[in-house]
Design goal:
There is one protein chain. The chain has 365 residues and is mostly helical. The chain is built from 15 helices and no strands. The protein is flat and about 80 Å long.
Length: 365
């Protein structure tokens, strides 16, 4: 466990340094550099605890290098998303190390986002624009496309693999299995696309309605909204007199007050409303279809036991790759996650194949 914690800190330091190198905004780049130094300090603390006599930190893991490569190809927002997802395990490791060494636990260890924000707040040259830019970046990667790609491909592969094996168990015909596989691909992909479109669209409509209501409340009762804003600041620990002054200053500009109340009172980030529901639907369709086509491909060229065997082999390989890709988020062993995914996928396919065989025998009888 100690070795794992050490490697986690080393990887985080490496990835934060890579984020700093590619970040154009000097303030945000400085934040990432400081985060890298923090993680390096944690790694050095773990290394001392190991009592190996070595003062040299291990190199970044293969997982970290793959994430760096993904960042180079698709953009480093993906890397930031993965880093944020692993902060819980990192913070737990830091707390354990501090307890063992008797160091004080400040509370910041449990939430690295708070550390990032405090670093920004302490920078002498931080502007409102810089802070907004950083926050929008952080929020925009929360549900990143890399994870959607992995999960979408997994859904398509497992569901259609199970369907194809079920039909293969019930019939030996190539055309029947192929037709069912293609139909399952289209039906599943269309269902995923429609579900994603409805999800994004309904969320946008709900937020837009709340934003409009907030605008009407400001126009109808500005005094009440000013009091609410002051109470929000007071709840954050700001002294009453200062909170009242801040709220009064903000309410002098109605448009600005509307923006602040949307974020502070409703917790809505306007950047989240800019996403395209149609774009999300198209991505979902494509990602599901990519996974779903894998078990069907062999039936385009052959049939019977040969096609089934090739389909199982291709699907198992696809499941292993998906399981391996999941380790980018979980940090687990590639072999463990890969073979676990293969096992679950094969069990699902075996069940549907068995049911299909029983149904086929029953109908034949």
């Amino acid at each position: 466990m100690k070795n794992k914690n050490l490697q986690t800190e080393v990887d985080a330091s490496f990835l934060y340094s890579r984020l700093a190198e590619v970040e154009e905004d000097k303030t945000i780049a400085n934040v990432f550099r400081q985060m890298s130094d923090i993680e390096k300090g944690h790694a050095e603390a773990f290394l001392r605890k190991l009592n190996t006599g070595s003062v040299i930190l291990p190199p970044p893991s293969a997982r970290a290098k793959v994430l760096d490569r993904i960042g180079k190809i698709f953009g480093y927002d993906y890397v930031l998303a993965v880093l944020m997802d692993t902060e819980k395990s990192i913070s737990n490791a830091v707390i354990v190390a501090k307890k063992q060494s008797g160091a004080a636990i400040t509370g910041a260890e449990t939430n690295h986002v708070k550390i990032l924000r405090s670093l920004l707040d302490n920078e002498a040259k931080v502007t409102g624009t810089n802070l907004a830019k950083f926050e929008s970046k952080h929020r925009s990667v929360g549900g990143n496309a890399l994870r959607a790609a992995v999960l979408g491909g997994n859904d398509g592969l497992v569901s259609n693999f199970s369907l194809v094996m079920g039909i293969a168990g019930a019939t030996t015909g190539q055309s029947g299995v192929l037709l069912a596989g293609v139909a399952g691909l289209l039906a599943g992909a269309l269902s995923m696309a429609l579900g994603e479109w409805i999800s994004v669209k309904s969320s946008q409509e709900l937020y837009e309605n709340q934003i409009q209501l907030e605008k009407e409340e400001i126009e109808a009762n500005p005094e009440g909204e000013e009091k609410e804003l002051a109470l929000i600041y007071m709840a954050k620990g700001i002294p009453e007199e200062q909170a009242l002054k801040m709220a009064a200053d903000i309410m002098l500009n109605t448009a600005h007050a509307h923006e602040v109340l949307i974020k502070e009172e409703l917790g809505i980030n306007p950047e989240e409303l800019k996403g395209s529901a149609m774009e999300a639907a198209i991505y979902s369709f494509i990602l599901f279809a990519i996974g779903a086509v894998i078990p069907v491909i062999p039936f385009f060229f052959t049939k019977g036991v040969t096609a089934i065997a090739i389909s199982i082999a291709c699907s198992a390989a696809g499941l292993f790759l998906i399981g391996s890709a999941i380790t980018l988020f979980t940090g687990k062993s590639v072999w463990y996650s890969g073979f676990r995914q293969v096992l679950f996928g094969l069990i699902a396919a075996a069940i549907t194949f068995g049911i299909g065989r029983l149904i086929g025998v029953s109908l034949a009888g």
